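Milestone M4 deliverable, item 7.
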Amino acid sequence: MIIRPVYAVIEREILRTLRQRTRLLASIIRPLIWLFVIGAGFGAALGAGGLDYQRYLVPGVLGMTLLFGAMLAALSLVYDRESGVMRMLIVAPVAHYWIVIAKLLSATLAALLQALLLLVVLAVLGFIEPQTRWLLLTVALVASALTCAGIGVLTAAFSRTLENFAAVMNFVIFPVFFLSGALYAVDTLPAPFKLLALLNPFSYAVDLLRHALPVSLDALPTAEFGVARDLLHALGFTVIALAVASWRFSRQGRYEPLIHRLAGQHGRS
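Output delivered:
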């Protein structure tokens, strides 16, 4: 009874993602620009060598793809609220938190789809090392996608309009990305920023990807935390984000029927 509506929401979101070919293309081009343009510049500035730093950057750009993909997929939660689709979901005979779970899972799958496309491109370009730990990479991609989807759904739950979500997303996504280990080691950051990076769940998602995609570089550190710690922080944050977003969504949904009734009475008058 519960599986069918959840599956319907996930199927709708995935089909929407597949139809947006420009968005899928952008999800590949954006990280490649960072890899080749920003990677070459940062590598020269850090004295690490362009190609070496680009290889170091691979887990970071994979994490970037997951973060941007999940955040944009979570936008549908706000869009459905504005377009009126959410009214039908709210009156469905399922608990409100199942709607949030379905949205989180759909954002996770959308992000994974984009990350897998990028992974294929990176493999063709020779950026995937032979020592890649494929089983751990699978776990890392899923855990990282769930973390990024948690960030997106949590942001969407507190955004009432598309414009508000767009503004908040820029305020959230860039600090989350830059205050992580995506571009540089967390240990190299000044103390205040290092503390913020350690509180950032995305830092552990990227570090988990570094465990799965090891590189042999003397000038640059690779993974900084343990796999168990990365998984604990990434999945723990996902559970907390899901709980908070479900609470917020239920709180808003409680007043939806009253708002629509009042709007209907106003229209008839």
